[in-house]
Design a protein that fits this description.
This protein is α/β, with parallel strands linked by helices. The protein has ten helices and eight strands. The strands form two sheets. A six-stranded mixed β-sheet has the order 3-2-1-4-5-6, sandwiched between helices.
Length: 212
């Protein structure tokens, strides 16, 4: 089952647009509870989402997140939903910045084998732009050392050849070959098949992680 966990504020438009784009088995809307007047506006927005879900016979719930332990509560939701769903999309367009940032941090705390089933998705507000990336690629990007980041920066310019890296980023030849192989194992770099000279390019998933 596909599960969508979405941050929700006072406006239901982004969540509804996402649901219309792709059918989901289950939806959980995360909303930050600060005070009652603001919460009533969140509930009105969710009422529209709930109505849409009911017409599609889709599971749907509003999850109240307290301001005292945002990170921990969001992590609990993600862990719970991963037990129910095969794949999970974390849709972070809407709601307070505190909630959105906490959702990102919480997803990075998931075990690696769970993170492989999570996709991070964000859309531009008021302009056309979209970021979609697997948490596995996102985590790999954050865990790189300085040499690996330098190699990825070179790969952004075009295919990289291990034999040329020592000159381009001032590292030893043995280090260049070792780091390229490590990045290939991490699925950050992909070896070009059939090339006359050994060369690698960035995986498409990582390209999405780096560019909007």
């Amino acid at each position: 089952m596909k599960c969508l966990v979405a941050t929700l504020g006072f406006d239901a438009d982004f969540v509804l647009r996402r649901l219309m784009k792709e059918e989901q088995g289950r939806l959980v809307c995360l909303a930050l509870h600060v005070e009652e007047q603001a919460w009533s506006r969140v509930e009105r927005a969710f009422a529209l989402v709930k109505y849409y879900c009911e017409t599609r016979r889709m599971e749907c719930e509003l999850q109240k997140i307290g301001k005292e332990n945002v990170l921990g509560e969001v992590l609990e939701v993600l862990e719970r939903e991963l037990k129910r769903c095969d794949v999970l999309t974390l849709y972070l367009t809407g709601g307070p910045r505190l909630l959105v940032a906490s959702a990102i941090f919480s997803s990075l705390l998931l075990p690696p084998w769970e993170g492989e089933r999570v996709t991070l998705e964000v859309e531009g507000e008021g302009f056309e732009a979209r970021l979609e990336v697997s948490m596995k690629a996102f985590s790999a990007l954050l865990s790189m050392d300085e040499i690996e980041k330098a190699i990825v920066a070179e790969a952004l310019k075009g295919p990289v050849r291990p034999s040329e890296l020592p000159k381009r980023i001032k590292i030893a030849k043995s280090t260049a070959y070792r780091k390229v192989k490590e990045l290939e194992k991490m699925r950050v770099l992909v070896k070009r098949d059939g090339a006359a000279v050994e060369e690698y390019f960035l995986s498409e998933d990582l390209r999405r992680a780096i560019r909007v």
